[in-house]
Design goal:
Blueprint lengths: L6 H63 L1
Length: 70
């Protein structure tokens, strides 16, 4: 009672599953790339913020030293 499928139907299934696999892989790669860009952007912002805070702290301490000499 085993039903044999036509070769055209087998090819159609392989084509469909292959296309689905390619699309799923593309979506996963795109999401990973977006997540990586977001992480890099956030770390760049944090470094910039840290640099700004360090610069403002340094200038503040220099200002205090100048005032104490006056």
């Amino acid at each position: 009672m085993v039903r044999e499928k036509s070769p055209g139907l087998k090819i159609l299934w392989v084509w469909t599953l292959g296309t689905a696999a390619i699309l799923a892989t593309s979506v996963v790669r795109m999401r990973l790339r977006d997540m990586e860009n977001t992480v890099n952007f956030n770390s760049d912002q944090q470094q910039s913020l840290h640099h700004q805070q360090t610069s403002s702290t340094d200038s503040f301490s220099l200002d205090d030293a100048d005032k104490s000499q006056v």
